[in-house]
Amino acid sequence: MDLFVEKEFIENFEIEYTPEKYSEIQKIIFDIFSKYARIKLFANASKDFIQESELLSRITDINTQSTFNVEFNKVFTSDYNPNPQKLVFTEKNHSWFSTLRNKGVLCFYYNTLESDIREFIEDTEIFIDLSDKENIPIDWKVFNYLNKIRGMILITDNYVLSDTYSQRIKDNLAQLLSKNLNKDNPYKIFFYNQI
Length: 195
Known about the structure:
- By secondary structure, the chain is α/β, with parallel strands linked by helices.
- It has helices at residues 7-16, 24-35, 47-52, 54-62, 72-75, 97-102, 113-124, 173-180, and strands spanning 2-5, 40-43, 66-67, 86-90, 106-109, 151-155, 187-191.
- It folds into two domains: 2-122, Rossmann fold (3-Layer(aba) Sandwich), CATH 3.40.50; 126-191, no CATH class.
- It has eight helices and seven strands, in the order E-H-H-E-H-H-E-H-E-H-E-H-E-H-E.
C-alpha cells in the first residue's frame, strides 16, 4: 500500500491521540501506521521529522521504502495514474482530492477524518445472515458499493468462492461481480480461499 502523509496531519494526530484514551477511528489510523507491513511511505517532511515522530517512526521501523520531502501538489496532477491501494492523509482538503477519489484513491483530511472513515466503514460493512431463509438466494446487489471502487478488490469469503453441490461459483461469485462492478472501471481482483 502507498501511504501519502502530510507533516501537519501527523502533528495534529499526535497531539490528540493518547493510547489510554482514543477513538475507534484514531485506533484504526494508529494501526495502519504501526502494524501494517509492506507500506511505501511518501511524506512532505524531512527524514529528521520522521525520526522525531512516534507515529511515523513506527511505520519506518517495519517498512523499508520511504520517500521524504514529497511535494504533493506536484505529484497529484490530473495525469497522475495511481496503482491500487493508496491512502492520502492531509491537514486540509485539497483541490486534487476529487481527481484522486475518481481514480480510486482514499483521501482523508484532518477535520473530517472521523466522519469520513466512519462513513466509509458504514458504506462497506455488510453482514448477511445465511441462516435466515429470507436471505437465500442472496441479492448480490447489496454489494453495490463495489462499483465505486477502482483498483483492487480482495475476496476472501468461503461461501462466494465455494464450488460444491449446493453452492456454485456461477451462482454466487459470478453473480456478485456481474451485478456490482462498473464495466468502465479497471479492477484487479484477488481471491483468497481459506479451507
